[in-house]
Amino acid sequence: MSKPKSQPPRESGAPRAPRASFVVLMAAAFALWQVLPGDTVCQAAVQTLALAAVALAVAALTCPDVLRKGGWRAALPPMATLVGIGCVGGVLSVAAGAGPGASAANVASPGVLLAALVLFAATGVFEEALFRVLLMNALLAGAAPPEPAAAPRPTSVPPALFAAIVSSAAFGLLHVSFDGALAGAGACAVAEALLKPVQAALFGFVMAAWYVRVRRLWPLAAAHAAFDLGYLGPACASGVLPATYVTGTPAGVVMLAVTSALLLPLAVRAWRSLRSPAGFQSRNKA
Fold it and tell me: According to DSSP H, which parts of the chain are helical?
């Protein structure tokens, strides 16, 4: 009787139940979106704080290594670039205005501005934990890193590249704004609704490549929050927080087009790095 094949040893720090953890967080997120209101900035801050807390709990149970220190040295150059792009969008957002649906509840009083800062930070934690950490781990589960000496087949798609494409596409879909804001809207609103998912997907692809490199949550969450602060901060300071991605103004179209164009070279560089077989397991624990 032949002996059963021995299973390969589990890598230290390998995620536990990666697919299940992503499903659990998605289910919890949908439940919280239904239970907790998010119509105003203060409500959205509370809602997103709850989402971030659940995301951190799931990550701590299934992939605690991503919550450790590290990755900051490698984070500074891309973080500075992303914040710069966010600030460009922020300056243009002032001209775009707050969009339809803005109300007195979103007027930038000190309390609302503080809630906005909490919202930016919590959004960075939740969205990076969901779309980069847990979704990427789920997509990469069971994928064996290629042998260094093996030449990749021309038609093969490296697992990390495939995971980044799916993750960024899902992140782009999260930012689709075809809703009541487009009712009777003009060409500018339609253009914004089409451009926002593209911009978000480019941003998500850059962050996905970054996660493959560092495998840490905190640098990504900080960069995401800083990008949102640069992107929405000037509009906050001008008096009213944006209520929607769709403003229906030419300035809003320009803002999304310019920031998408600035993100495109970073996405191309990320694509090239993910095409490398070594990119599957590249890490920087600085």
Answer: 18-35, 41-62, 72-96, 110-127, 135-140, 159-174, 187-214, 218-238, 250-275
